[in-house]
Amino acid sequence: MIVVTGAAGFIGSCLISRLNAANFRDIVAVDDFSHPDKAPNLEGKAIKERVHRDAFHEWLAKHHEATEFIFHIGARTDTTEFDRAIFDRLNVAYSQELWQACCRYQIPLVYASSAATYGLGELGYRDDESLIPQLSPLNPYGDSKNEFDIWALNQPEKPFFWAGLKFFNVYGPNEYHKGRMASVIFHAFRQIKATGKMKLFRSHHPDYRDGEQMRDFIYVKDVVDVCYFLMHHRKNSGIYNLGTGQARTFLDLTRATFHAMNVQEQIEFVDTPADIRDKYQYFTEATMDKLRSIGYDRPFHSLEAGVTDYVQQYLQPGAYY
Fold this sequence. Notes:
CATH topology of the domain at 2-171 and 217-245 and 283-300: Rossmann fold
CATH architecture of the domain at 2-171 and 217-245 and 283-300: 3-Layer(aba) Sandwich
Subunit structure: Homopentamer.
Strand order of the largest sheet: 3-2-1-4-5-6-11
Structural class: alpha/beta
Binding site for NADP(+): 10-11, 31-32, 38, 53, 73-77, 145, 170, 178
Keywords: Carbohydrate metabolism, Isomerase, NADP
Function: Catalyzes the interconversion between ADP-D-glycero-beta-D-manno-heptose and ADP-L-glycero-beta-D-manno-heptose via an epimerization at carbon 6 of the heptose.
Low-confidence stretches: none
CATH superfamily of the domain at 2-171 and 217-245 and 283-300: NAD(P)-binding Rossmann-like Domain
Pathway: Nucleotide-sugar biosynthesis; ADP-L-glycero-beta-D-manno-heptose biosynthesis; ADP-L-glycero-beta-D-manno-heptose from D-glycero-beta-D-manno-heptose 7-phosphate: step 4/4
Radius of gyration: 19 Å
């Protein structure tokens, strides 16, 4: 059996689709299944068993011999949440208990870290593990992910294979439920469909013109391909960036969305909200040499190709992956 935590969420549900496509059908889906807006993410997928996240550690103690691999994707990911106790419980303590179980039962583990750990990028965006203790995330979510990364690196006992993946700006199908935390592509599609135009944040940084703030946007299909590769690779444990390695502007993204929708471009600029202005990242770009060095050689979708696939195959028909 292969376990996926956060199974009903965005990346977790897409990962199950990727595993199903490769004929892996004994999937154990772990999540809090009480949110009805996530239910469509799992419809039609081959899942052997659903386990509530609060019961999972007990379940694993009973079924570890049949568990081949664990993808720990589940986490509290709201960057606007400032109750650190929530992150301590769901992102740190829960992950620590799972790590220790993987050591005890000798189960390989891939877990979700985040590019939010890099903060404003004062030290760059290199997945150099020696730099991780020096990083300064901008919010409790980023702090929780960095805290677990540091804890994992310092453990004397580790799973025989493990990898932490620093996801950059992931977009794609099955994020319908995420509200404000959904990707800019998702919000652009909704705005353009409703109003025929898109509003972007104005730049408040002298080095960037309006709309030219840059992010490393990665299509979720590329993310789950990397997860699938690591499930088979099972060596070169460590923490890896997962972006495309090429930063693109929000103007690029918005224009690609207009083009995919076959709508004439109309873009307006609004002030960045004051509550996030001092925590706003103007540039992120993953260095991808480390992942490439262990043999991952598949190309990533260009922003234009990813946005076109997302808009035309999923957003316009309201489809799920």
